[in-house]
Structure prediction request, 270 residues.
Amino acid sequence: MRIDCPLCGARDRREFYYQGAAVALNRPAPDAGVEAWDDYVHLRDNPAGETRDLWHHEAGCGAWLVVTRDTVSHAVSRVELATDVKGAMA
Amino acid sequence: MGELKAVSACAGLVPVCIGSVTVDGMDLECMTSLSPFGDALALDGALKKAHGVGWPQAGQALGDATVRVIWFGRNEAVLIGPEADQGLGDVAAVVDLSDAWAAVSVEGAGTVDVLARLVPVDLRAAAFGEGQTVRTQLGHLGASITKLGPERFMILVFRSMAATLIHDLKQAMAGVASRG
Ligand SMILES: [Zn+2]
Prediction:
């Protein structure tokens, strides 16, 4: 498996660290309430289809990446810098 | 305090010559990490003014043996050679890394074959030219690899990993040499 890092180009899987669902980009406000925080910390979707994960290009440029992939076909459709994704949300 | 004698990270380990490939230590003088505040425009200007070499794009290595600016990761480059100009601190986070990294050159016919045994990036001439650099792994080590010439690369690893780097390179060199 290779991930096409926006900075480094297509790189071997061993250079990356997998963090999990890309929910960290949607961190609730401190006063968002127990339910929002419970959802953020514990509850994850398990989709058959498109999902977004955070990967760290640990042994490369050091950037956090948002990788969009399909859990059924395993195809990776998009790789973006987490900073760009977060910036676009603002 | 008396005058301290500098000891290279690879002292006693290099040079190593196996087959047609040679590994030797490189004395980088100063090595300084630069991370721009905001975009890199101001740092690019300050670098050019102070050191004659600008800010590199991702994967780019600029300059020559006297002054190099090498891309070192997201929003980071290293200045190699001269002591960093004080003014850079106005536009970037400036961290002195001198002596914290070990530097070696690997050169000679077959160098790419040696590195191919250790590095998961295509470093063949068609894919990786002079002036290009990568952050990647060499064996289990995090490394910075820069192409300096047709069959010549500079490899940087944490200083504490110098012996492992030389060990891994020797093993790969012996493997390639044994195939004739
Ligand atoms: Zn990268």
In short: Chain A touches chain B at residues 7-9, 11-12, 14-15, 58-63, 81 (CB under 8 Å). The two ends of chain A are 32 Å apart (CA to CA).
